[in-house]
Amino acid sequence: MSRKPVPSLRAQAELNKLGSDIAIARKKRRFTQQRLADGAGVNVVTIRRLEKGDGGVSLGVLAMVLVTLGEHNRIADMLDISKDDIGLALGVNALPQRVRPKGDGKGKRKKTEPQEPSGGSDKVSF
Question: Pfam families annotated for this entry (predicted)?
Answer without folding.
Answer: HTH_3
